[in-house]
Amino acid sequence: MMENKKKKWLKSEIEFLKTNYSIFGVTVMAKVLGRNVSGVSSRTFRLGLKKSVTGKYNSNWKGDGVRYEAIHAWVKRRLQKPSGCSNCLKENKRLDLCYKNHDYGPNKGKYSRDLSLWLWLCRSCHMIKDGRMKSLFINHMLWRYKNESLCSM
Fold first, then answer.
1. Can you spell out the DSSP letters for 97-143?
2. Residue at 143 is within a domain
3. Any domain includes 91
4. pLDDT tens per residue across span 10-42
5. pLDDT of residue 33
6. Within the chain, how many helices (H) and strands (E) appear?
7. Among 3, 22, 42, 87, which is most exposed with the fewest C-beta within 10 angstroms?
């Protein structure tokens, strides 16, 4: 029975890999060093020669054409949360992520990855900005009027 031992990397092999990786790539280096491709690939990644493919260079990158939840999660990871609301400047309030331009022009409902277009707002400022506070007030007044007119009968 053959033992499955990993062959240790020699310093000369690592130096050879560092100097020639950018020229030849993983598959050629694997053949030259007599190693499998996955071993050479993982070693180059650990040495910092090969970087992880993130952002717009990833094959699954969708740009601005992503769903609401995904774009909000992406911005939350990158936009630092302040200690207070960006609008009313009140401290120690629960903050929501708010998109500045989502209700204007032909791009209504579309979001951008431009971090300058995003704000951290407290709940009340966010509702005022979105127009939800106005509709909440109007609906409350209609409900109140309806109930008062029913009670007076």
1. EEETTTTSGGGTT-----GGGEEEEEHHHHHHHHTHHHHHHHHHHHH
2. no
3. yes
4. 888 888 888 877 777 778 888 888 888 787 777
5. 83
6. 6, 2
7. 3
Examine residue 5 and state whether it is found in any structural domain, yes or no. Answer: no
* Residue 8: Cβ-neighbour burial (10 angstroms; 0-12, 13-18, 19+): exposed
CA 35, CA 39: separation in Å to the nearest integer? 7
DSSP 3-state of 45: helix
26 assigned to some structural domain? yes
Same domain, 76 and 30: no
| Of 52, 27, 51, the residue nearest 38 (C-alpha) | 27
- 74 with 116, same domain? yes
Same-domain status, 74 and 119 = yes
pTM of the model: 0.53
- C-alpha dihedral (116, 118, 122, 125), degrees to nearest 10: 90
